[in-house]
């Protein structure tokens, strides 16, 4: 009888301890973000739509006023950000092409706007051509240097990007601070990146610029999450939502916390389903596929992957989802050849460590571990601090029996489980 009582007490203690651990692991609160999931109206979207109607009428009445085209394009770009509907991005491109042709590509502001549109479309080399054209004209040099930094970072031209950054050096300038924050993140100095983004945030608050406040809050949500401060990450996403209740990016960040940190797949899916009704993009299906994999639900995983590819087949996203496609194809031996084809195109379009990682990972999944290692050591090692790239690198080292090199990478990866997602936890432990 005493033994049974003892066991009962031990079992009760274990349950209490487990309950406490689960509670301490919970950061999100439905009471805090539910209101953002239930909003039916979208004031920001409605405002932009009204602006489009207003400026379209003005242009129709005075088609010689070319400047109206850029204003219209800007509003269509905002509509794309708000809804995720790529047709608005293409509409903005069309308007900017008309405007640039009317000006005979002599107005630097309009040239830069078209370049930024191409960045959004992942047409980086075309964006660089336009940025260089703006630089030759010379007007508004600082703004062009900012654009050149952005494009060169996307293309992996890091030496040139650093020079662009030096050309705009101004520690009290918002645009400089967010770019030097990105530069430090690229260098692996997350602490400095966060500190600089905090300074940019303070400038946005001082200037009462709602758009820039939301932008910095959501970026600080990301950066703090990568740094392992999940509570601060969550708090920043909430701050962004206070100002912009329909900010789908921040809601997606909260969904990731629910999934990756709290392992609450039911809540993560509920949040994603609510967002995708208003901001439907293919990557939501990929997130749901990840969650299904964690739940060991192969049918749901395949259904979401099929829905993802169906959306890509229905809507033309150009090169925007190449990276995701390559990673999906590479993980299946039957489609690894497709991954290699995409990776080769990505390396041509965008020779970054990310693109070369795709190439190396594709060769690894095709069984050529030596070729994978050769590419990784030449183009990836020491050139990126992204956890996903380091996971691929450690896996390639293991396949080549270079076990000594795995231990330090594995330690870093174990600290990056939140960023990588729970599906890789066991695979990292097995390295």
Overview of the molecule:
By secondary structure, the chain is an all-alpha fold. Among the domains are: 170-245, Serine Threonine Protein Phosphatase 5, Tetratricopeptide repeat (Alpha Horseshoe), CATH 1.25.40; 318-431, Tetratricopeptide repeat domain (Serine Threonine Protein Phosphatase 5, Tetratricopeptide repeat). The chain is built from 25 helices and no strands. Helix 21 crosses helix 22. The chain is globular and about 70 Å long.
Question: What's the helix and strand layout?
Answer:
Layout: H1 2-25, H2 30-37, H3 43-61, H4 67-83, H5 86-102, H6 108-120, H7 124-137, H8 141-155, H9 158-167, H10 174-186, H11 190-206, H12 210-226, H13 230-243, H14 248-261, H15 265-276, H16 283-294, H17 298-314, H18 322-330, H19 336-349, H20 353-365, H21 369-379, H22 387-399, H23 406-414, H24 417-420, H25 425-429
Helix pairs in contact: 3-4, 4-5, 5-6, 6-7, 6-8, 7-8, 8-9, 10-11, 11-12, 12-13, 13-14, 14-15, 15-16, 16-17, 18-19, 18-20, 19-20, 20-21, 20-22, 21-22, 22-23
How would you describe this structure in keywords?
Serine Threonine Protein Phosphatase 5, Tetratricopeptide repeat, 25 helices, 431 residues, globular, single chain, disordered N terminus, mainly alpha
